Structures are given as C-alpha cells and as structure tokens.
Amino acid sequence: MGPFRFTNKERINHPQDFRRVMKLGKRLQSKNFILFIQENEAGFHRLGMVVKKEIGPATYRNRMRRYFREFFRLHKHQVRGSLDMVILAKKGCALSRYREAEEELKGILII
After folding, report:
1. Is the residue at 96 inside a domain?
2. List of residues 6+ apart from 109 with CB closer than 8 A
C-alpha cells in the first residue's frame, strides 16, 4: 500500500509499553496535548494514543484518535530515529479541525 500506511506493528498496544514510555520517556507539552517520546530498538516509529472519557463524548474522542493517526501517518517520515510516541489529549481539549491539531503537533514534535 505504500510508505504512508499505519500498520499494526506501528501501534503501541500493550499497557506495559504505555507505562514504560510515559514513565521513562521525554515529555513535551502543548496547549491541548502531552507527547511522551522514548527511543526504541525496533527500527521504526510506534504510536500510542490516550484519550480519556473526560475529554468528551465518544464521537469527539474518536475524532481525536483519527487526527492522531492521520498526523502520525503523514509525518512519521519527518522524525529522525526510531521512537515510541504516546499522545495524550488533555482535559479541555477543544479542536474542531484537523489542521489545528496538525499545527499543534508539528510544533512539539517536528524539529
């Protein structure tokens, strides 16, 4: 399908992986997100997403997850190294468009 896919191997699924990245990784903050980053040995980037129920209704939480996946899919090639990334949406996160989320995530992740 090409280099812009978001495959299963690029997902962080196990709770111990989330805990490890969130405890030991570098923490970067923006207005609506907290990004945890830690180097991995896999040779490719992996993404985990945390969107708690306090963020809003299910439709809004799912939209946030779609925004995160789309951002990762399109911009993973611009980040050097191989990293485990966990994106956490802060309480009070109020984004209505993908472009808003993209600009904010670009500001904290892409150097």
Report:
1. yes
2. 28, 35, 37, 75, 79, 85
Q: Does any domain span residue 74?
A: yes
Contact present, 19 and 50 (Cβ < 8 Å): no
What's 89's domain CATH number?
3.30.230.10
The one-digit pLDDT tens for each residue of the chain (111 residues) are 567 888 788 899 999 999 999 999 999 999 999 999 999 998 899 999 999 999 999 999 999 999 999 999 998 888 888 999 999 999 988 888 999 999 999 998 875
Ramachandran class of 81: left when φ > 0, alpha when ψ lies in -120 to 50, beta otherwise: left
**Residue 35 in contact with residue 87, Cβ under 8 Å?**
yes
Range of the domain at 24: 8-109
Domain for residue 2, yes or no? Answer: no
Dihedral class, residue 11 (left if φ above 0, else alpha if ψ from -120 to 50, else beta): beta
Considering its fold, how many domains does the chain have in total? 1
* Prediction pTM value: 0.89
